[in-house]
């Protein structure tokens, strides 16, 4: 199998902290492998600095008073990945057919280096051949113009800048659809839907300064050490001031246990570690609603007692009365929930939940930080709503040091939504764009990621444009998707490196190479900057200075403009060329469409720490229909959406410490003690014994979704691991083949990648 890699796989527990010498060694492996030049090394130091570039890795906040080197191991890997001196040229494609390349591993495809030329697929030879940009745009226009706009999809991955995203969304609407799925559809859409319904804003309410003011942090389902390592500094500072950190995660993730700052020479020399979590609860996958219900139950009980004794209430009853709706029904549900059910569903003992409820009840300000462990479940939206319930009980939204803090994924995934990348009409100022550009914008809801997958499989989607990303690898049901993809009339991929999606051409296919954000982008008016929005709603300018990987590359705004001019009639109110010549003009257009958020956009572009776009819920103004923050009674205690049954496991598909989504940097997962392989199945020792398996045995997984479809992943090595019983862990994207398209979060349609029903096959 293409994914299998067994260069002496080695599995043994890792004893070190997150960060520390391990992260330095990990970099020492990557930098030479990417043949990084001295200039590129200099670029590393410009990461997340004023007038530097915004890191292309995660979306965590970038402080104004930055650390001496505001980058982390993962950021450095992402920078090295983009600045590699390795190249994938037309000569490479002359030597390899796509059929052959489909046998390569994801790692080897990208490791070959940056794409250098625009390419067209030649079905006669099954190869990509170099073409001119003009030729590419002309044919893309000729193919798209006759199609029904409803059958065309414009995907984007969350790395694309605000400028290119705004242009892309506008182009789609002018073309005639809102088929604008993005990586957020697979990620924090449960947040966007859940928080919007509960508190009237689709994003977290907190900022970095709240880390200085909280006295407890509740941390659910986010692997900070691997996926947002810069936050470890904030967490460590919190710990040093005695903030309690209560973590809920099925796995003992090292970054949540302890950390050594690789940028602090004293800590490194003395091997000093900071313990991060003060309580660590290994909740079952999909057990968070139950866990939070247990905490709420203690709070309500203690409140009853306090009120009866004339003491200060445990709940913030004044806040609840003034600011919330649905409290009565919620409390009724809390009282009705049975401890046996809570303990079974959460996998946690009542005493553990009591211990965390004590911390919650004592804290004056609580931050609730979370990631994919909550959002990627069938009840992902209810997970988010339950977290809000918990916060509302003690008024922990809209006060300093408190609030929901979703940790977003890609570096501009939140920002794309801010400037129009959405399939939902209600999230777009339709009247304003119609007036600004003189056209009638579509009102019909567009396709999201799940709906796009359905459409590709059933043939109703005819053309796909991908602005970054690796759609075909990131989505569920990858085998059926790969089988269906060649039936597309047109597949266009805008990318920096070759990935598996590019190996599945449509009837007509183009692979268009673009500049990365770290590279210098010179247009008619001179060198350009772009912008991104981080997880805390702060908007940052970003200026690339590294020499481009090839002189044939175009920037993302230039490529979008090229396609737009080819598919749209001329519009006197919109000069795409003028936008490409000077991105400040795009920012003026963005400001005109979104005057509240982007006031004085160009002037504020390089504000240290970014400029905050504001947040009504943070001011306790609730933009919900009831004008209050809404409690929700969850529909049940389990988030999995399927019943437990003999032999059926809950599979969590996970990221390693050595990947960025579908980009595989290497085959080690240092923190989890895995070396040289990704073909691992994490499993509880007692489950291994009960299933009659043994450590190191090679097994297959089959999906157990009850829909009669066969989905199978071969070649996984059984590894005993500290994981709750009945739960399994294995790596994404290799296990996406096991996920049915229809196994997604209700309402938000996020694929339910953290509890996939599977059976073990031998
Ligand atoms: N280096 C690096 N950085 C990244 C990425 C990357 O791949 N590599 N990806 C980026 C992107 S796009 C995103 S969205 C984020 C992803 O970052 P995370 O949100 O951390 O996503 P995952 O790595 O998928 O891991 C989720 C965590 O949830 C836990 N978990 C699984 N199921 C449950 C559950 O039911 N309940 C609870 N409480 N926990 C659960 C897992 O054990 C794991 O620790 O990171 C971003 N940053
Ligand atoms: N089973 C399972 N599936 C998941 C997840 C999971 O946890 N489990 N997580 C989901 C999540 S949270 C996400 S966000 C998605 C990720 O889905 P995507 O965002 O679609 O995937 P990436 O792997 O981030 O995309 C990598 C590719 O982006 C291209 N690229 C990199 N930089 C640039 C650039 O600057 N410009 C352009 N144009 N292209 C660039 C490169 O060619 C690279 O190969 O996957 C989702 N799928
Ligand atoms: Mo993501």
Features:
762 residues, alpha/beta, six-stranded mixed sheet, six-stranded mixed β-barrel, 34% helix, 17% strand, binds ligand MGD
Model description:
The relative contact order is 0.17. The chain is globular and about 80 Å long. Residues 1-7 have low confidence and may be disordered. Helix content is 34%, strand content 17%. The protein starts with 9 loop residues before the first strand and ends with a strand. The longest helix is centred in the middle third of the chain and has 21 residues, at 288-308. The protein is built from 30 helices and 33 strands. It is α/β, with parallel strands linked by helices and 762 residues long. The strands form ten sheets. It has a six-stranded mixed sheet with strand order 6-5-18-17-16-7. Strands 25-32-29-31-30-33 form a six-stranded mixed β-barrel. A five-stranded parallel sheet has the order 12-9-8-14-15, sandwiched between helices. Strand 26 and strand 27 form a beta hairpin. The protein binds ligand MGD (2 copies) and molybdenum atom. Molybdenum atom (MO) binds next to loops.
């Amino acid at each position: 199998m293409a994914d299998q890699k067994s260069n002496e796989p080695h599995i043994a527990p890792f004893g070190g902290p997150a960060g520390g010498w391990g992260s330095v060694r990990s970099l020492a492996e990557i930098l030479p492998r990417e043949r990084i030049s001295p200039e590129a090394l200099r670029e590393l130091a410009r990461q997340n600095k004023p007038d530097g570039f915004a890191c292309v890795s995660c979306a965590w906040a970038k402080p104004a008073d930055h650390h001496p080197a505001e980058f982390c191991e993962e950021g450095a890997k992402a920078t090295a990945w983009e600045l590699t001196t390795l190249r994938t040229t037309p000569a490479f494609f002359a030597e390899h057919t796509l059929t052959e390349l489909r046998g390569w591993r994801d790692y080897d495809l990208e490791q070959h280096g940056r794409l250098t030329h625009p390419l067209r697929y030649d079905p006669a030879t099954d190869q990509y051949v170099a073409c001119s940009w003009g030729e590419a745009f002309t044919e893309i226009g000729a193919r798209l113009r006759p199609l029904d706009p409803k059958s065309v999809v414009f995907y984007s991955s969350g790395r694309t800048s605000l400028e290119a995203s705004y242009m892309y969304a506008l182009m789609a609407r002018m073309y005639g659809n809102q088929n604008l799925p993005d990586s957020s559809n697979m990620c924090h859409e449960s947040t966007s839907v859940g928080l919007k319904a509960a508190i009237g804003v689709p994003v977290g309410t907190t900022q970095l300064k709240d880390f200085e003011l909280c006295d407890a942090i509740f941390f659910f389902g986010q692997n900070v050490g691997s996926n947002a390592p810069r936050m470890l500094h904030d967490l460590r500072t919190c710990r040093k001031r005695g903030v309690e950190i209560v973590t809920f995660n099925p796995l003992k993730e090292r970054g949540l246990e302890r950390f050594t700052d690789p940028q602090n020479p004293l800590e490194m020399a003395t091997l000093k570690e900071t313990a991060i979590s003060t309580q660590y609860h290994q909740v079952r996958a999909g057990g968070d609603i139950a866990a939070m219900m247990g905490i709420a139950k203690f709070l309500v009980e203690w409140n009853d007692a306090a009120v009866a004794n004339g003491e200060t209430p445990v709940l913030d009853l004044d806040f609840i009365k003034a600011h919330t709706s649905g409290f009565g029904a919620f409390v009724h549900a809390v009282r009705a929930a049975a401890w046996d059910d809570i303990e079974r569903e959460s996998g946690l003992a009542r005493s553990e939940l009591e211990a965390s409820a004590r911390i919650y009840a004592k804290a004056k300000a609580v931050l609730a930080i979370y990631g994919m462990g909550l959002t990627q479940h069938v009840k992902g939206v209810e997970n988010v709503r339950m977290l809000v319930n918990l916060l509302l009980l003690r008024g922990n939204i809209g006060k300093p040091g408190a609030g929901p803090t979703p940790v977003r994924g890609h570096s501009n995934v939140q920002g794309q939504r801010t400037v129009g990348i959405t399939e939902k009409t209600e999230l777009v100022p339709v009247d304003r764009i119609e007036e600004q550009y003189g056209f009638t914008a579509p009102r019909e809801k567009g396709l999201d990621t799940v709906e796009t997958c359905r459409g590709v499989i059933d043939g109703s989607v005819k053309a796909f444009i991908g602005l970054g990303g690796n759609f075909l690898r990131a989505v569920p049901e990858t085998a059926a998707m790969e089988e269906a993809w060649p039936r597309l009339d047109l597949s266009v991929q805008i990318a920096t490196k070759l990935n598996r999606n590019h190996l599945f051409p449509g009837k007509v296919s183009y692979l268009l190479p673009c500049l990365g954000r770290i590279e210098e982008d010179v247009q008619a008016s001179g060198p350009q900057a772009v912008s991104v929005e981080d997880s805390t709603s702060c908007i940052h300018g970003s200026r690339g200075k590294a020499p481009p990987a090839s002189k044939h590359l175009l920037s993302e705004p230039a490529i979008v403009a090229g396609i737009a001019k080819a598919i749209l009639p001329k519009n006197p109110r919109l000069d795409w060329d003028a936008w490409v010549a000077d991105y400040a003009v795009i920012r003026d257009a963005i400001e005109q469409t979104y005057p509240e958020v982007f006031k004085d956009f160009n002037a504020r572009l390089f504000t240290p720490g970014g400029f905050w776009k504001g947040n009504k819920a943070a001011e306790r103004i609730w933009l919900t229909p009831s004008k209050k923050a809404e409690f929700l009674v969850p529909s049940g205690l389990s988030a999995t959406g399927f019943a437990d049954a003999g032999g059926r496991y809950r599979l969590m598909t996970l990221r390693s410490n050595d990947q960025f989504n579908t980009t595989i940097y290497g085959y080690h997962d240092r923190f989890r003690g895995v070396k040289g392989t990704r073909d691992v199945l994490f499993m509880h020792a007692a489950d291994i014994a009960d299933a009659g398996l043994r450590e190191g045995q090679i097994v297959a997984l089959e999906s157990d979704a009850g829909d009669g479809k066969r989905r199978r992943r071969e070649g996984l090595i059984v590894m005993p691991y500290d994981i709750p019983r009945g739960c399994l862990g294995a790596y994404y994207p290799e296990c996406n083949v096991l996920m049915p398209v229809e196994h997604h979060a209700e309402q938000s349609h996020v694929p339910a990648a953290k509890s996939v029903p599977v059976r073990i096959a031998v």
